Model the fold of this input.
Amino acid sequence: MTDHRPCVQLNTGVQMPLLGLGTYRLQGREEIYQTVDAALTAGYRAFDTAAVYRNEADIGQALCTLLPKHGLSRADVFITTKLSPKDQGWKAKDGCLRSLEQLGLDYIDLFLIHWPGTQGLDVKDKQNPENRAQSWATLEEFHAEGKFRAIGVSNYTVKHMEELLKSCTVIPAVLQVEFHPRLVQRELRELCEKSGVCFQAYSSLGTGILLSDPLVLEIAERYGKTPAQVLLRWAVQQNIPVLPKSCQPNRLQENGCLFDFELSDGDMAMLSALDCREKFCWDPSLVL
Ligand SMILES: NC(=O)c1ccc[n+]([C@@H]2O[C@H](COP(=O)([O-])OP(=O)(O)OC[C@H]3O[C@@H](n4cnc5c(N)ncnc54)[C@H](OP(=O)(O)O)[C@@H]3O)[C@@H](O)[C@H]2O)c1
Done:
């Protein structure tokens, strides 16, 4: 088995694998079982889900069956899930308990607030900051009880992060945001570095679109690697954890083979120079 398990240390002391499996749009008990099985075989030890993905129960069930089959225990895997935007504010406690129940776990390794806004509220509604403060206080309680080993946020902008860092008791362990060569998020990364927050990438392949970028293709050919490997290597070489999603065993294997080659400084810089602030996912900048 290839060793895919280099980790980053979170500010709680917890180790988080640099490579995790993204599970957005992974649906159906059989497909989830097959994908988790193939991912464990390929060396993945981290899994990223969310209440809104509606697959927590099937992922929990698959892991429960598959961990013993792979000679692994709960402690060998790192499970991330996220609070639904509809559960922000006073509903947060129920949302947290539901995720634990759906996953069938006593504890979650990393629990994130998925989105700075609240579903059903206008992005400019003043209730948005109040709700996320209340959600954060709830996450801090679950963290204190040992039910969440680390807590963090997702899709927060610099403004949302500064507000949280000013008011929190527990400093977020992770900020998970969209990150790839066309969106290098300099300001957010600097803020995270300064504050001891681990910056984590999602949509590293640009949801698949960046796999046909001419520069990515050219670099891939020169290294004898695939475009996906170049994009993922570009992130992990900066010590940024990635969560590529695939339901195909050969791609899971391919996306996991990132630690046996290195991109030159020049190629890293050329990829970073593709930055044009292009987003393939949602844009949180308007959320008050
Ligand atoms: N916090 C958030 O708000 C947020 C938002 C978006 C994503 N995420 C997380 O990040 C994960 C990854 O992001 P993403 O799903 O948006 O996109 P992604 O990982 O950038 O791209 C996934 C797409 O690329 C394809 N693909 C994967 N590996 C490939 C390969 N080696 N060659 C060719 N095609 C390949 C997949 O298809 P196949 O499955 O058919 O292989 C899928 O269509 C999500 O699943 C989720 O866990 C979080």
Summary: The mean pLDDT is 97. Strands lie at 7-9, 15-17, 21-22, 46-48, 78-83, 108-113, 148-154, 174-178, 198-202. The longest strand covers residues 148-154.
